[in-house]
Amino acid sequence: MSGPARRPAGGAVRRHGVEPVSYRIVPVDPHAHLFEITLTIAQPDAEGQRVALPAWIPGSYMIREFARHVVSIGARSAGRAVRLRKLDKHTWQAGRCDGPLTLVYRVYAWDLSVRAAHLDATHGFFNGTSVFLRVLGQEDRPCEVLIEPPSGEEYAGWRVATTLPEAGARRHGFGRYRAADYDELVDHPVEMGRFTLDAFEAGGARHEIAITGRHDADTARLCRDLARICAQHARLFEPRTRRAPLERYLFLVMAVGEGYGGLEHRSSTALICSRNDLPWRGQREVSEAYRTFLGLASHEYFHTWNVKRIRPAAFARHDLQQENYTRLLWIFEGFTSYYDDLILVRSGLIGRDAYLDLLAKVITGVMRGPGRRAQSVAESSFDAWIKYYRPDENSPNAVASYYAKGSLVALALDLTIRSRTGGRRSLDDAMRLMWTRYGRHFFSRREGLGEEEFPRLLEEAVGLRLDAQIRNWAYGTAELPLAPLLKTVGVELAFGRGDQGPVSLGARLATRDRQVEIATAYSGQAAQRAGLSAGDTLVAVDGLRVDERALKALLARRKPGDRLRVHAFRRDELFECELELDAPPATDAKLKLMPGPGARATRLLGGWLGGGRSGPAG
Ligand code: ZN
Fold first, then answer.
1. Ligand 1 centroid to residue 264 C-alpha, Å
2. Average of pLDDT values for 194-213?
3. Can you name the residues that pair with 461 across neighbouring β-strands?
């Protein structure tokens, strides 16, 4: 349970002479995408108060330098202007002042993502990290925020959606909100506009879903399905009470034409999705698109436990001005990616076959990337700031995904534990031990999982030493023994060539201006051996001009070992090379339930996908 629930309502607490830090935010010019923020520091450092805007937002491990969107800033005290000196790219220092210090600044908000801020005449959205300057030395003080509507008749119907505790504002109204400290202030995104709103109960808490953007979603259906997911998560971590660790939770959904993404917060999540991913009235089945949305919502909701409360020790207290390094994102993102879809089948929203199809896609994605041999998921986590979050043409060769491969490490550990303990223990036990040890009391203790601690914790939770497996699978690049492990639960894994055609160029292609371009030349494969590189444009093969369709038709008539004469441009220089075609690698996974798997495997399968002895999914 986070701090605010224990605090009396009606304003931030004034601790013994400690004045709260006070913010006022106004969408001052929606057409220019400008928020104006007034920050009042009641007791500034008289010698020169420093303020700074974060360089990154927790949950998205990349330096984003939000201060670059501050377009104007000024300071006053006791009715006089105070000089502001910029110390570095995101820090300002005010001159000497005697009384309260007030800063007024404007932030340009035109990033339609879950990570920053966005404002136009249809809605406003912001994360605190984009708009609220941190008052250095006063981060632990309570904060008050006055959220105001834009001025003008056309904004009359706007409301506010956030889980910031109200301090005078009516629920969903403009007005005064509060937070226990700066960390809490920036962990509650705020949406304003004419969103649709619906609510449901799960895990003993009120859950709301606010959808912005044009859509025709069946919100009652959404609430029913999300309630099952949320209840299943709560049950996993608190099997006795089945309670979620919060009183209120909010799904903030931005529905757009094309989009996908989510960011977790302590009692809410911001999601962006295609409006076609949301279920329409009358839709009966869980379509692939809707499954994508449910998987995203499930992922972010799982983070309520795993990363917002159970945290790597390195994130227990974030330094928002610079990179924070951990090798554990394969646990915090990988395990979350494992459980997001698993919860869909355990809650009965999708069947076992649909779940195995999802899993097969993840395995295929990991197997197609040569990067899994170049980098471990622990290294990928550590270097997330410069590699995973900043992909380039060589990323498939050089980077392993701590999400996708991390989820397969979770699968491999889970199946190992289940099969060695006859189904009496599982990865769920490790999640619960991390929860009781670190998560449940996180906001009062601020302790997290140590970098080297997981093997011992796992042993304590399940009674098995799996150090070698963790070393090889997470800290090394060994292939995961998925086929024999899946066999223990009666699932057969086979690899084939899928729809890759009879031959492989060993490259990922892209079409630009109707021309075929090499997007990535895979390490050691045909295109790279022939001397082709990312960015090269293929103009002719065996003397014939090619576009995407012509190339596909030509390759369909070739076999592995055949040679192609390729004409290509690198920049504006034409060159010729000879390319020897490879057989497509057998990377495409197929999973199916084995017929007559035996009593033991059947029982283990029920425990895995059903979450208990009964195993309701089907
Ligand atoms: Zn995540």
1. 7
2. 98
3. none
Q: What radius of gyration, in Å, describes the C-alpha atoms of the chain?
A: 27
Q: What is the pLDDT of residues 125-167, one digit of tens each?
A: 999 999 999 999 999 999 999 999 999 999 999 999 999 999 9
Phi, psi of 575 (to 5 degrees): -145, 165
Please tell me the distance between residue 300's alpha carbon and the centre of ligand 1 in angstroms: 6
Please give the distance, rounded to the nearest whole angstrom, from the Cα atom of residue 297 to the centre of ligand 1: 10
pLDDT (average), residues 42-64: 97
What distance in angstroms lies between residue 12's CA and the mean position of ligand 1's atoms?
31
Query: Ligand 1 mean position to 229 CA, how many Å?
Result: 16
Task: Compute the half-sphere exposure of residue 441: CA atoms within 13 Å on the CB side of its CA.
Answer: 7
Q: How far is Cα 474 from Cα 329, in angstroms, rounded to an integer? A: 10
Token pair 């500034």 is at which residue?
44
Counting every residue, how long is the chain?
A: 618
Angle between helix 427-434 and 404-420 (nearest 10): 110
Rounded to the nearest angstrom, the distance between the alpha carbon of 303 and the centre of ligand 1 is 7
Span from the CA of 306 to the centroid of ligand 1 (angstroms): 9
Q: Which two tokens stand for residue 366?
A: 């990991």
**Matching residue, tokens 């009641």:** 42
Residue that has been written with the tokens 């937070």 in this structure: 179
Query: Is pTM beyond 0.85 here?
Result: yes
For residues 154 and 418, give the distance between their C-alpha atoms in angstroms, rounded to a whole number: 59
Q: Report the mean per-residue pLDDT for the chain.
A: 95
Distance, CA of 372 to CA of 398 (rounded, Å)? 8
Which whole number is the average pLDDT over 500-523?
95
Q: For residue 17, what pLDDT band results from cuts at 50, 70 and 90?
A: confident
**How many angstroms does the Cα of residue 333 sit away from the middle of ligand 1?**
5
Cα 545 to averaged position of ligand 1 atoms, centre (Å): 44
Q: At residue 3, does pLDDT exceed 70? A: no
Tell me the three state secondary structure of residue 396. helix
